[in-house]
Amino acid sequence: MTKADLIEEVSRVVEMTRKESEVIVEAIFDSIVRSLRSGDKIEIRGFGSFRTRQRQSRVGRNPKTGTRVEVPAKKIPYFKPSKELKDVVNVGGKPAEPLVSSELPPL
């Protein structure tokens, strides 16, 4: 699913215009990014949590030339799915069937 698909789905489910749905989706993504930038953890019950992890600096190699390259320390975004999301995705180990909106965990 792409962002455009998500916008279309929101538009269809809440019966809003595509433009209004796009504003909502963008606002959610912007909020998540702002929180992660400031070091906050985002937890969406029944879905999962977003946080950042610190990667240490290391010495890497340029695959083309083989020369050593210093890779600086950095923060990376990390998503951990909730148990409920894992259970919904892995319904008895069978391929997932389309869910009715009433079967989705509450956000």
| Number of domain modules | 2
**SS class:** alpha+beta
Task: Give the number of DSSP strands.
Answer: 5
> What's the rounded overall pLDDT mean?
88
Determine the fraction of residues in helical runs and give it as a percent range.
Answer: 25-40%
Number of helices: 3
Shape: elongated
Percent in strands: 25-35%
CATH architecture of the largest domain: Irregular
Please give the largest β-sheet: 3 strands, antiparallel
What topology does this entry show?
Layout: H1 3-14, H2 18-37, E1 42-44, E2 48-55, E3 58-61, E4 68-71, E5 74-81, H3 83-89
Antiparallel strand pairs: 1-2, 2-5, 3-4
Helix pairs in contact: 1-2
Short note summarizing the structure:
With 107 residues, this protein is α+β, with helices and mostly antiparallel strands. The protein is 36% helix and 25% strand. It contains three helices and five strands, in the order ααβββββα.
